[in-house]
Amino acid sequence: MAVIVSKLIPVLITVSMLAAMMLLMMGVGWASGKLIRKMFGLGGK
Amino acid sequence: MEIYLPISGVEIMAWKLILLGFCVGVIGGFFGVGGAFMVTPALNVFGFPMAYAIGTDMAHIAGKSIVATAKHRKYGNVDMRLGLLMIVGTAIGIEGGANFIMWLEKVGKVDVVVRYTYMVLLFGLSSFMLYEYFKLTKGTSTSDKSKPVSDAGTSGLALKMQSLKIPPMIHLKVSGFHISMWVVLIVSAATGFLAGFLGVGGGFIRMPSLMYVIGCPTRVAVGTDLFEIVVTGAYGAFSYAMKGRVELIAATVMLIGAAVGAQFGTLATQYVKGLKIRLYFATTMLLAGVSVIFKHIAGTYKAVYSSKLNDWVKTNPDFLEFAKTEGAKVSSAKAQVAEWLLFHKSEAQAWIAQQSDVIVHARSMEKAWNAYAGYLMLGAAVGLSILIISKMIAGIKLEKKLLADQKVGV
Known about the structure:
The complex is a heterodimer. Chain A is mainly alpha-helical. In chain A, 84% of the residues lie in helices and 0% in strands. The radius of gyration of chain A is 19 Å and the shape is rod-shaped. By secondary structure, chain B is mainly α. In chain B, helix 1 runs antiparallel to helix 2 and helix 1 (14-31) runs parallel beside helix 10 (248-268).
């Protein structure tokens, strides 16, 4: 059990750090997308 | 502002990373490629250690592709069915390519074969795409140039592939045609094989294959390729992160630029004609080919001293210890030496400094040609992103003018 947990922890940490990074970027992408469309006066999608 | 990267122990200017991320974001969103062929040499020019450049680049590619794919999906440019099938074929192909590389390593011809294949592929693809572009635009008068030019399924090869009725046939709704599942699997396995063999993501091979062999419209090829890069990039980022090769701070800073750049690149695909996208893509491949030639020249200088350096490494006590422990995980002795050298650059440099003038000169020339390759890719990234954004702005202005004219007409 301890062996499985010790192997799983680095995997979980790596996955959560990468996931957090990706989520942050999706937020940045979404916000910048809105801003760009506003900047060029584009509606819809 | 300089930021300290704790894993690799180097300091780097944040604006450089943001700018690089932005430019490659624009290019990636526009062409549907990861852009590793631009990012890795450019990071190296910035003083980023190669050992971390690939892993960090992979994390940046995964993040950027998510943002770009989400946007392309909104525009209806992602063929999910095709993308999922391509992932299966690519995975099989990559495994085959990686095994072929291991066989070549045993024969001892890996470097030369990989480099020449890379050059032939880049120059071959770009020449073919340029030929196609000029063939399709030939005879189009100046007044006709504002009209959209046909760009879907134009290649004869794509039409032949679509006419093969080998069951099961699948309907690709977004791409707009029926095709045999086997054709998709074989094409993706072949591109995956090349990607695994060359050690690259393979977006630059898949994107033209989707257009010219399968027959997807340019924008769908871009969006679908990006969807595939999300999956392969995420796997690559995870794999490199587990090996401690991802500089998360650098990847995050780059991604801030890339997330914004990808928005511009994706939006630009709506305002630039499919054929123009192909023209710019071909030009990028041509420049990447020139950069590989520069790297090849650097490689010839490296050959002057590499065997002597390898012999020195193999007798180094620190390497012998590494070969018994961590290095044991690496397949071949050559790969073990390369892995050790990645993290012992200063020792190798000290050894070179003590050698003959010929070796010292060869080393400095190798560094110079590698730097030329990096600067070329950096220049190409900046120049292309400026071109793409300016074309996008021109397209938006034209669309607004046409809309205004229509209103006046009504």
